[in-house]
Every structure is written in C-alpha cells, then in structure tokens.
Amino acid sequence: xxxxxxxxxxxxxxxxxxxxxxxxxxxxxxxxxxxxxxxxxxxxxxxxxxxxxxxxxxxxxxxxxxxxxxxxxxxxxxxxxxxxxxxxxxxxxxxxxxxxxxxxxxxxxxxxxxxxxxxxxxxxxxxxxxxxxxxxxxxxxxxxxxxxxxxxxxxxxxxxxxxxxxxxxxxxxxxxxxxxxxxxxxxxxxxxxxxxxxxxxxxxxxxxxxxxxxxxxxxxxxxxxxxxxxxxxxxxxxxxxxxxxxxxxxxxxxxxxxxxxxxxxxxxxxxxxxxxxxxxxxxxxxxxxxxxxxxxxxxxxxxxxxxxxxxxxxxxxxxxxxxxxxxxxxxxxxxxxxxxxxxxxxxxxxxxxxxxxxxxxxxxxxxxxxxxxxxxxxxxxxxxxxxxxxxxxxxxxxxxxxxxx
Length: 405
Ligand code: ADP
Ligand code: ASP
Ligand code: MG
Prior knowledge:
- By secondary structure, this protein is α/β, with parallel strands linked by helices.
- It has two domains: 3-174, Acetylglutamate kinase-like (Carbamate kinase, 3-Layer(aba) Sandwich), CATH 3.40.1160.10; 244-405, VC0802-like, CATH 3.30.2130.10.
- 35% of the residues lie in helices and 26% in strands.
- The protein is built from twelve helices and 18 strands.
- It has helices at 16-31, 46-57, 63-70, 72-87, 119-126, 153-163, 197-205, 213-221, 275-285, 312-329, 356-366, 390-400; strands spanning 3-8, 35-40, 92-95, 102-104, 113-116, 130-134, 137-139, 145-147, 168-173, 194-196, 226-230, 238-241, 254-270, 293-295, 303-310, 333-346, 373-377, 380-386.
- Strands 3-6-2-1-9-11-12-10 form an eight-stranded mixed β-sheet, with helices on both faces. A six-stranded antiparallel β-sheet has the order 14-15-13-16-18-17.
- α6 (153-163) runs parallel beside α8 (213-221) and α7 (197-205) packs antiparallel against α8.
- The longest helix has 18 residues, at 312-329.
- The protein is globular and about 75 Å long.
- Magnesium ion binds at residues 9, 151, 154, 209.
C-alpha cells in the first residue's frame, strides 16, 4: 500500500460540484489500494475576501489577528471535502493545523514550518480514514495560529509528505503542469515534462505562483517526488525531479514574472561604512525581505542613492520604517514606487552560455521597455520594469528565446 499526498488549490475546490470532483480523484487513489492524505486550500476568492475585510478595518492589520482571520478559509473547505467523502461512503477526517500539530516559527503571515508531528495523522490513516488537512496554516510554540504566506498550501502538502514519508505528492491545480511561462499570459507557452528542483526553485522565487517556493525547498531537501497536474483534465503533468534525471537542457527554459514587487529609494544616503548594515539590519528585524539592491556610485564622495525592492505586501510597512531610518542616518528623502514588476529568464543551461542577458535586454529594448534594475545569478536574469508592460515583456521574451519551439 502506497501513501499518497494530494493537494488541491482554491479553484479546484471553488464550488460544491468541484469539491465532488476532488472527492472522486481522491477515491480513485483509494480504490487503487492507496492511503491518501488530501491537503486543500480555501475556496477560490475566499482568502482575498478575508484580507479585504481586514483592510477595511486597518490598512496595516495587526498580524496575529490577520492569521486568525485568513486561516478560516481552509477550515470551510476541509469540512466540506470530508463531508463529501463521507456522503460518498468513505471514512474521512479533517484536521486543522493545530490539531496535527503543524508547528511553525512565530512570524505571522509568512511563517515557516519547523516540525510536523505525524502521530495524529498516522492514527487516523490506520483507522481507515482519508485524512483531509487544512493547507496554509500552523501553530507556533506559544499556541498562536500562523499562516505560511500566499500560496502556502503547496508547502503544507510537501511538508506533510516529508513528515509521513509519503511515496508521492501530487499538486492538482487549474493548469495541467508547469509551462515555459504562465499560460494565462502567453498562449504560446509549452508544458514542461520534467523540471529540475533548481529551476523550479527559481521559477517559484521569481513569481511563478504555480508552486509555493518553500514547497520546492522541502521537496528538494527530502527528495519528494512532486508532480504538478490538472484537477480538471486527466493528463500527465510536470514532474519536478533531480537535474540528473533530465536528458535535454535548453539554455533558457522559461520566463517568470512577479507583479508583487515595489521599489524604495533612499536619496542622499551618507557614504560611509556601516550605513547599509544599519538600514538592512533594521528592515530584517521587521521580517521584511529585500530582494534586489542597487547603490549608485557616490559622485561627491559624501552621499549616494540606494534603491531596493520588497514585495507589495510589505511596501507600506517598509516605507514607514525606512522613513524613520532615513531621518536617523541623515538621508535626504525616501521615494517609493509600487508600479513595478520583475520579469526573469531562467535556465540551468545559462551556466555554460554567454550572451543570454544581452539577448534579453535587446528584446525588451525593441519594444521600448525601459529596464530600471537588473540582477543575475548563474541560472537567471531578472529585470525590474514598469508594471504595465509585464505581459508584453513576457510574450516578447518567450518569442525571443523561441520557447514555443
Ligand atoms: P492553486 O490555487 O491551485 O494553488 P495557483 O493560482 O496558486 O493555483 O497557481 C496556478 C497558476 O499559476 C496558474 O493558473 C497560472 O496562471 C500560474 N502560473 C504562473 N506561472 C506558471 C507556469 N510557468 N506554469 C504554469 N502556471 C503558471
Ligand atoms: N488560501 C491561501 C491563499 O489563497 C493558501 C493557498 O491557496 O495555497 O493564498
Ligand atoms: Mg497556489
């Protein structure tokens, strides 16, 4: 008997009919003789609705209460799915994060899973239940409810698969696999049969929301066989696996974009040792993660401008904080811009090829898209651009690198 973890996203459990469809997929695995743990997200739109309610109370809601609120979406969907399975004649039992428990650190709204106790789930499985687990949530060591960040149910699924030594983890979603880029933006996008953990990590960290970043980290660390596939079509999906298992490797595998980006510039920062450490130390203390950083050369040897990016979610919090820091260190001004996005090209093949970045810049230039910031690693190149050109940039780059071929 194999143990299988199946995860279904918001669209897949968006209506009662769709929940019945999910139940059928679960039952199919049970009929094949497998034990099944199902992880589900909140019904489509529910998490957004809850966040919107909170913002009507406070633009920057108190984060502990935010997690109490947004974790409720998954409570609804696990109960509905368990009921559906029971109604269809199967034994099923739902669990919230704290009932398992799934332990996390105490960083509200973007907590990390630290430990999962397998005993309660194991017991329910042994009693012949289909186990239905709420994605996206956990509990910290003080007993507070926490959530894992948007899209975090993927991470719950993979972490559970690791903790219970599952044979497979299938991520069912509204697309039938990982594509060369978001198929909803670029109709020419092609499905990738197999993708390496390394590349999938880049895709996820650069904004392709098809898999939550930490789910890929867990899968790689614990060597979990991960498959992304459709909730609605019975087709083969995309396998995420070790690089060695993939035969051919194009230079550029795909394009990712991230609209959840904002830019903050501190103008006329004193040019002396220790300033950057002070600024970014204070930002890190508030659990705000900074992505790209650009510091101009100092023209007069006295001051310089410093620009960096954060997520849009963190923008307001970061702006308030940076304004305080700027006063403290004697900088002249702080300027923010939320209308930016990041487009990236990804490919492990870049390691051994030159001229890839130049080709990217050229393709963007041809469409008159201005590049505001650039960052590179061994296997990706990212550009910050005006948000309104995001989709155009994705399609232009997809064409330039002939990813439809
Ligand atoms: P779920 O609710 O099932 O977790 P998500 O909306 O989080 O689904 O993720 C699936 C979405 O990811 C797709 O609908 C698609 O628009 C988007 N996406 C972005 N990049 C890619 C990509 N490279 N391949 C497939 N889907 C992608
Ligand atoms: N419901 C959460 C969200 O919308 C978690 C998830 O769907 O993975 O972000
Ligand atoms: Mg998701």
